[in-house]
């Protein structure tokens, strides 16, 4: 069917079995937009009749709108007098969304509610998945929604020993087992925990990397705080209401596996630009690095530099807190860590 230039919506209305445009549009007057879909050839142009705040272009008059032609909606905002305010295609929004980087879903606890404060909620581990860019595996946990009909799906950092089909309990009265989420104030001293909240309700912020864990050291019931030893060795004071998962983050020992050959290192660092191979400074020429040059490979001066050194000389141990061999208790602790 040939699209007439007088009334812009006839072809679409005939395809969809809808009523055609009002007679006022045939006389050249603008009619309010009634939500009728336009065909592909409908475009805002200055050289045709007005119907529903839109224009029929000359190219549309020469085209044939067949029933098989794809029909979609155009978001056309029209004033009461029929004049057009804004017209854009939904594909433009899609292209805009695709051009922006996708935001990954964070792996964190469920939002703190009265159910966890007073009792416990039961969830089920439905799957163990890999998250690109993260060393630790993630667990998909499904809960029954506490306030309305339906399910509540969460993404937890998996603890070592979790499996598909495992029941997970979250709350103050949950039992002490791997994967359960409890307030740190209810955990006995010496408990191994992970994914610890730094503040009440932040849904997990500490000890989240693969193989990481924290240890509950002591409780202070007078002010409601708990002292926890972090993976770095630092001791942090937390509110006893902060939640934590019992156990150690899965994926431990990931970095201990040897690469064995350069090809494995190539594929490992391929996604990280200019990270591999890394040439040593002493193997360079003196024009390329402060450590370069000489008849044999040596730095030739102290490896420590001051904090305010110029960019060309800022290489080596920058503003080192200490130099030389470790002595005393530091050497003993370093020897124990190597065992």
UniProtKB/TrEMBL annotation:
Biased segments, Basic residues type: 319-328
Region (Disordered): 285-339
The species this protein was found in: Panicum miliaceum (Proso millet)
Domain Large ribosomal subunit protein uL2 C-terminal residue range list: 176-311
Biased composition (Low complexity): 329-339
One Gene Ontology term from the biological process aspect of the record: cytoplasmic translation
NCBIfam families cross-referenced by the UniProt entry: PRK09612.1
Keyword Ribonucleoprotein: yes
Family of the protein in this entry: Belongs to the universal ribosomal protein uL2 family.
Keyword Ion transport listed: no
GO cellular component, one term: cytosolic large ribosomal subunit
One Pfam family matching this protein: Ribosomal_L2_N
Species classification: Eukaryota, Viridiplantae, Streptophyta, Embryophyta, Tracheophyta
Domain named Large ribosomal subunit protein uL2 RNA-binding: residues: 104-170
Name recorded for this polypeptide: 60S ribosomal protein L8-like
Signal peptide: 1-25
InterPro entries in the record: NA-bd_OB-fold, Rib_uL2_dom2, Ribosomal_uL2, Ribosomal_uL2_arc_euk, Ribosomal_uL2_C, Ribosomal_uL2_CS, Ribosomal_uL2_dom3, Ribosomal_uL2_RNA-bd_dom
Domain of life: Eukaryota
Keywords from the named record: Ribonucleoprotein, Ribosomal protein, Signal
Gene Ontology MF terms: RNA binding; structural constituent of ribosome
């Amino acid at each position: 069917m040939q699209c007439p230039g007088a009334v812009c919506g006839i072809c679409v209305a005939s395809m969809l079995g809808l009523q055609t445009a009002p007679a006022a549009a045939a006389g050249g007057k603008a009619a309010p937009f009634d939500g009728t879909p336009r065909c592909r050839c409908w475009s805002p142009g200055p050289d045709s009749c007005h119907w529903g705040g839109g224009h029929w272009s000359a190219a549309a008059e020469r085209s044939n709108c067949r029933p098989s032609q794809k029909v979609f909606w155009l978001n056309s905002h029209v004033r009461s007098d029929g004049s057009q305010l804004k017209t854009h295609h939904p594909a433009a929004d899609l292209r805009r969304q695709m051009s922006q980087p996708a935001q990954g879903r964070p792996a964190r606890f469920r939002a703190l509610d009265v159910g966890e404060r007073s009792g416990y909620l039961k969830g089920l581990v439905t799957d163990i998945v890999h998250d690109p860019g993260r060393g630790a595996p993630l667990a998909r946990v499904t809960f029954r929604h506490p306030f309305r009909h339906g399910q509540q799906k969460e993404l937890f950092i998996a603890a070592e020993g979790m499996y598909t089909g495992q029941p997970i309990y979250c709350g103050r009265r949950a039992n002490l087992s791997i994967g359960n989420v409890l307030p740190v104030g209810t955990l006995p001293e010496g408990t191994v925990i992970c994914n610890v909240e730094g503040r009440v309700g932040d849904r997990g912020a500490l000890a989240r990397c693969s193989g990481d864990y924290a240890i509950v050291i002591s409780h202070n019931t007078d002010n409601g705080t708990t002292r926890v030893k972090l993976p770095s060795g630092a001791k942090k004071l937390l509110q006893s209401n902060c939640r934590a998962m019992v156990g150690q983050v899965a994926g431990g020992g990931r970095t201990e596996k040897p690469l064995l050959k350069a090809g494995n290192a190539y594929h490992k660092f391929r996604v990280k630009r200019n990270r591999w191979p890394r040439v040593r400074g002493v193997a360079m020429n003196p024009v390329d690095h402060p450590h370069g040059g000489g008849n044999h490979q040596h730095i030739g001066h102290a490896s420590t530099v001051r904090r305010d050194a110029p960019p060309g000389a800022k290489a080596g141990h920058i503003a080192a807190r200490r130099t030389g061999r470790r002595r005393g208790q530091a050497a003993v602790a370093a020897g124990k860590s190597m065992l």
